[in-house]
Amino acid sequence: IQQKTWSDRFEGSLHPAIVQFNASIGFDIELIEYDLTGSIAHAKMLAHTGIIAPEEAQQLVTGLEQIRQEYRQGQFTPGIDQEDVHFAVERRLTELVGDVGKKLHTARSRNDQVGTDIRLYLREQIKDIRTQLREFQGVLLNHSQTHVETLIPGYTHLQRAQPISLAHHLLAYFQMAQRDWERLGEIYARTNISPLGCGALAGTTFPIDRHYSAELLGFGGVYGNSLDGVSDRDFAIEFLNAASLIMVHLSRLSEEMILWSSHEFSFISLTDSCATGSSIMPQKKNPDVPELVRGKAGRVFGHLQGMLVLMKGLPLAYNKDLQEDKEAIFDGVKTVKGCLEAMTILLGEGIKFRQERLAQAVAEDFSNATDVADYLAARGVPFREAYNLVGKVVKTSTAAGKLLKDLTLEEWQQLHPKFESDIYEAIAPKQVVAARNSYGGTGFEQIRQAIARAIAQIEQT
Ligand code: ARG
């Protein structure tokens, strides 16, 4: 049944296409649990301040809890004629508890109501995502502990640069996730502020207690300016910014997983639990999971951009444009959660490091050339001079099809009298990595300390 929405000022009814166009119930039903929780706190506040009677508040709370049960059992499915979740709940409440239901909206507007709902929703999601980040960090840490002394080529410009510990590489992603976790903690605090009681824009004539309802809802504070309270979406933009950075990090890791699983790199193999085949090429094993994560990064960046543009021209205070915040936030949340889950599974059981191939990779190139220059520099040869000399050696060796380790001691000493037989030890891949013992470097001693620090970080709450 089409129910009357607006005051008696309205005589005609909305064009059916405009009903459809205006409605948000199709997506804001996602907020229902938070809408009910917010309304319960509001009802209790109304009784606490004597605006309604305690028995009336009790009836409202009972009715709202009943709607929660109906919703959870799949029995509350409001249609498009309800416009949005707020109207749908208020109408159902009045059906259930009678005229007292019409008192719920005293001293409240949908503007402060929807702001309350979206903050309650988002703070919950932020908690979940932080938990997921911890799980993701846990898998990175596990691999790191196993692979302190597993070497892998380190790259700059995607050209072999210097060999590093595989743990060092993975711990770089651990630290990105750590910053994501910390950032979301800061955003949680700014999301967790109550706009409830800001009214439509200017506050209310009723003697409400905003701090009381805020406390019931677990908010850390209340907005001090009602115009700001109903029209602020900074927290949503901050969240989508943090979500975008998480996606940047996951996407970079995905790109590496895709490269590493290619025949050309062959640093990892994909297990059957996370790889997919081809419908035509029987030999294929495709890294669909990291490819999808890399692809989904784009939509989260899009939501961030969308929200910035949505906000930039809005005059104070509430404007219906703000209804457009929801799908951006919901999809951003779902995408980040899905990607974190998939990447945690991929890293946990979807890949195997090909250790022989990695060992071979670091032994077959000139990525120890810096160490030869360092060797001479440590023996008094100015670094730039040593660097030029080694450049020449790389050139002649490449032409001769040789690696540095293949040069005889005589050849080394012809190049420079400072070379001695310990040059071979100095350019062996393990030693090359171990020697980078500066703080935060890849040396094994540093990695062990970095792992200890990572364990302490992951235990922070
Ligand atoms: N569905 C609306 C939204 O999502 C609720 C607030 C509507 N307020 C109003 N004054 N039209 O923003």
Structural summary, described in words:
With 461 residues, the protein is mainly alpha-helical. The protein folds into 3 domains: 16-106, Fumarase/aspartase (N-terminal domain) (Fumarase C, Chain B, domain 1, Orthogonal Bundle); 111-361, Up-down Bundle (Fumarase C, Chain A, domain 2); 363-458, Ribonucleotide Reductase Protein R1, domain 1, CATH 1.10.40.30. Helix content is 62%, strand content 5%. It contains 19 helices and 6 strands. The chain has helices at 16-22, 25-28, 32-48, 54-72, 85-97, 110-146, 166-191, 210-216, 226-231, 234-260, 288-312, 325-350, 355-363, 369-378, 383-400, 409-415, 423-427, 429-434, 444-458, and strands at residues 151-156, 159-165, 193-194, 221-222, 268-270, 351-353. The chain has a two-stranded antiparallel ribbon with strand order 1-2. The protein has a two-stranded parallel ribbon with strand order 3-4. The chain has a two-stranded antiparallel ribbon with strand order 5-6. The two termini are 50 Å apart. 40% of the residues are buried. This is Argininosuccinate lyase. Pathway: Amino-acid biosynthesis; L-arginine biosynthesis; L-arginine from L-ornithine and carbamoyl phosphate: step 3/3.
